[in-house]
Design a protein that fits this description.
Elements lengths: L2 H22 L18 E5 L9 E3 L5 E7 L6 E11 L5 E10 L3 E10 L9 E8 L3 E5 L2 E2 L5 E10 L9 E11 L11
Length: 191
């Protein structure tokens, strides 16, 4: 091989060596990622641990309506523990009773007691008072401020109007709960 051939060989190798980085510089890498995100609402409503004791039904969990079948006896009160569970993911909303209906033996009052699941009903976050009437519906007063990051139980203290007529056994209370001042954002953790 003469010197021109050797020079041509070296020039060819050099051209290839220079062409490889230039060609790879134009490669574009595309990464595709899939993330599964569970949607989170500011407030989540669930049936509580003792919901079956009062045949509690919960519908429309974003603006919930609950229905309770309350056993009514000649005792001065019936206390229903942990019938409803409320988890607050964002904001500091106020829980109130938007409307309610009642059918059954006469009641003096129904007190809704709200407290954190880590606490007890003896030191509640707040209470809402309902005066039910079979003939004229219900009136409710009070609201309870809830805090993000907490889960609450909702108990019901039912006070019948004594004496209960013979043969009366239960009443049905339907409550439409409302939330006001729902603000705040829900943060979504990285997977």
């Amino acid at each position: 091989m003469n010197s021109v051939g050797k020079l041509a060989l070296v020039a060819g190798i050099l051209a290839i060596a220079l062409a490889v980085p230039i060609a790879t510089a134009h490669l574009i890498f595309v990464y595709e990622a899939y993330v599964t995100v569970k949607p989170t609402t500011p407030v989540v409503w669930l049936s509580g641990p003792d919901a079956s004791a009062v045949s509690l039904s919960l519908t429309n969990k974003t603006s919930p309506q609950i229905s309770l079948t309350i056993p009514i006896t000649n005792s001065s009160e019936t206390y229903v523990y942990q019938a409803l569970e409320v988890t607050v993911n964002a904001g500091s909303p106020y829980l109130y009773v938007g409307s309610c209906t009642y059918s059954g033996p006469a009641l003096t009052a129904v007190n809704i007691i709200v407290y954190p699941t880590t606490g007890s009903p003896t030191s509640p976050t707040g209470t809402i008072d309902i005066t039910p009437s079979s003939s004229s519906g219900c009136t409710a007063s009070g609201s309870v401020q809830l805090t993000a990051g907490n889960t609450y139980y909702v108990d019901f203290q039912v006070e019948p109007s004594l004496p209960i007529p013979y043969g009366a056994s239960s009443g049905t209370l339907t409550i439409n709960f409302g939330l006001s001042n729902e603000s705040g954002t829900v943060s979504i953790p990285y997977p």
